[in-house]
Amino acid sequence: MNTKYIFISGGVASSLGKGIIASSLAKLLQARGLRVTIQKFDPYINIDPGTLNPYEHGECYVTEDGAETDLDLGHYERFLGVYTSKANNVTTGKIYHTVITKEREGAYLGKTVQIVPHITDEIKRRMLLLGRTGEYDVILTEIGGTVGDMESQPFIEAVRQLQWELPEEDVMCIHLTLIPYLNAAKELKTKPTQHSVQTLQQAGVKPDVIVCRTEHPLSPELRRKIALFCNVRPGHVIQSIDAWSIYQVPLNMHEEHLDELAVRKLQIDNYAQPDLVRWRGFLDRLAHPSHEVEIVLVGKYVELQDAYKSIQEAFVHAGAAHDCKVNVRTVQSEYVTEDTVAEMLKGADGILVAPGFGERGLEGKICAVRHARENGIPFLGICLGMQMCVVEFARHVLGWPDAVSAEVDPKSPHPVICLMEEQKSTTIKGGTMRLGAYACRLQPGSLAATLYGRTDISERHRHRYEFNSAYLTDFEAAGLKATGHNPDTGLVEVVELPAHPFFIGVQFHPEYKSTPEHPHPLFTGLVDAALQYHNDHA
Ligand code: GLN
Q1: Nearest to 113 by CA among 90, 156, 104
Q2: Cα–Cα distances in Å, from 427 out to 7, 423, 424?
Q3: For residues 407-416, b (16+ Cβ closer than 10 Å) or e, as one string?
Q4: Interval 416-475: pLDDT, tens
């Protein structure tokens, strides 16, 4: 069988959840026994989102091979349980960078370099790249942005060309739109969808299926109307009604026959029904929890829901594993002080101090760590959160009030967190952190080793600063133990307080690897400890 390509575009509004629709369809095809991956093409000019403020773009997701990517790749991995890579996220910036580099090398032999065909050729090359590896039966490609945007035009043009160049049975185009409900008229309106599909067709792309985001069910008449005006078959108008969980969407799409439409259009002989037993099991547990805990997430980007996406999702997975609803309450670290901390963290059965960069909100994070440490509240610190455990301990247990991370004050007399050696010569900001998967060896008998159930692990990273090993003996003598190290460099990756019921800081990002079917042991561990704490303090 040839590799099959499914393109997903969007119209009417942004944030309709193209990533969730792509992930859901991919999940269904995978559950039918196909080898599937998803890639995202983003129209912005940044090479990757690594240099973007989370307020701009939500969380930056990191892959095994160290790519800083769009957060939709997190959804792809969580739904499919397979790793993505650098090749799965392409931006306009990357496309132009390649073309301009080739031009400087003289690769275009004196020709005028143009959007069509040179930019579109490079887009097409990248769209087909993962298909050429032979590792996948189906490649789903999500086109970022909204049809009609000036920026996404070259991507849509590339899809148009591929729709003609590839055999008809190897390409499918899905367009996701919004059907708004006018409360005053008590009516669902199809006009924006008609216009959006017109725009797509003017660009030469003919959708095979229209997926309609809606708050209310679409009647058969409405579906027929959309089909008529949008030039698709009536059965090819699908409703995606607001779901109680994003993880319910694959089941909703299956009920709407989206996967069946795909296997028919793509002439895939494998008509087996999707095997969703484990997925349904997860959803059942998620829907009917018998316990409840509150975890306070202390971070500085809390105003934006998507800024800590993977952490939030990891709690969903870990909660379901424990039959427990995890209420994640976010707290703006800037407002946490010694005077406010008790009040702001009241009711917390567990505390997570989030990753981050720069000085803003750091003192609040330190207060939150201290509150967890002194009150025996289950605690997990991730990346900057781990670094703040170290600073807090240095200040209040070792008695070094000037202890700080060199990120804030490189001249501090007690730089307990310092710049990694390899970072000292780095001046360029993009793509230069310590990124992606590294091995870590855990101390036998440590909390971490107990939770993971083994001593050799691998986790993903995104940082420039590290635990300053010059102070290791001081910390360990006073009770903060380094229980995880990089086996090659000795870098400290995990710190723990054995005297505390559950207190662990990790330099890596466990949240990136948590999935519904494989919840992460550090998150399930934290939820378990939070449940215990909750029951003890009820
Ligand atoms: N700013 C810290 C560093 O660069 C932590 C990074 C993070 O939390 N991802 O080391």
Answers
A1: 104
A2: 38, 8, 8
A3: beeeebebbb
A4: 999 998 899 888 888 899 999 999 999 999 999 999 999 999 999 999 999 999 999 999
* CA separation for the pair 269, 226 (Å, rounded): 29
- Answer yes or no: are the C-beta atoms of 361 and 54 closer than 8 Å: no
Nearest CA to ligand 1 atom 3: 463
- Per residue in 364-401, pLDDT (tens digit) is 999 999 999 999 999 999 999 999 999 999 999 999 99
Residues with CB under 6 A from ligand 1: 355-357, 383-384, 407, 462-465
Q: Which residues contact 424 (CB under 8 A, 6 or more apart)?
A: none
Q: If you count them, how many residues does the chain have?
A: 538
Q: Which of 60, 212, 367, 383 is catalytic?
A: 383
pLDDT confidence bin for 44, thresholds 50/70/90: very high
* Closest C-alpha among 425, 464, 430 to residue 97: 430
Mean of pLDDT over the chain: 96
Confidence (pLDDT) at 215: 95
- DSSP state for residue 49 in the 8-state scheme: G
Nearest atom in ligand 1 to the alpha carbon of residue 355 is 8
Q: Are strands 503-506 and 492-496 parallel, antiparallel or unpaired?
A: antiparallel
Give the number of the atom of ligand 1 that is nearest the alpha carbon of residue 466.
Answer: 10
Taking residue 497's Cβ as centre, other Cβ atoms within 10 Å add up to 21
Between CA 270 and CA 392 the distance in angstroms is 57
Residue 383 catalytic?
yes
- 477-521 pLDDT tens trace: 999 999 999 999 999 999 999 999 999 999 999 999 999 999 999
Secondary structure (3-state) at 241: strand
pLDDT reading at 52 higher than 90: no
Most ligand 1 atoms within 8 A of CB, residue of 52, 384, 419 to mutate: 384
* C-beta of residue 154 within 8 angstroms of C-beta of residue 115: yes
For this structure, is 509 an active site residue?
Answer: yes
> CA distances (Å), 97 to each of 159, 208, 436, 458, in order?
20, 33, 23, 32
Please identify, by atom number, the ligand 1 atom nearest to the C-alpha of residue 354: 8
The C-alpha atoms of residue 63 and residue 468 are separated, in whole angstroms, by 26
CB 271 within 8 A of CB 242: no
**Of the candidates 355, 258, 265, which has an alpha carbon nearest to the alpha carbon of residue 310?**
355
- In the residue annotation, 511 being an active-site residue is answered as yes
Distance CA 178, CA 218 (A): 12
Quick check: 349 and 377 in contact, CB under 8 A? yes
Contact indicator for 274, 254 with CB cutoff of 8 Å: yes
Is the pTM higher than 0.85? The answer reads yes
Task: Among 465, 466, 467, 492, say which to mutate for ligand 1: greatest number of ligand atoms within 8 Å of CB.
Answer: 465
pLDDT value, residue 269: 87
Per-residue model confidence (pLDDT) at position 51: 87
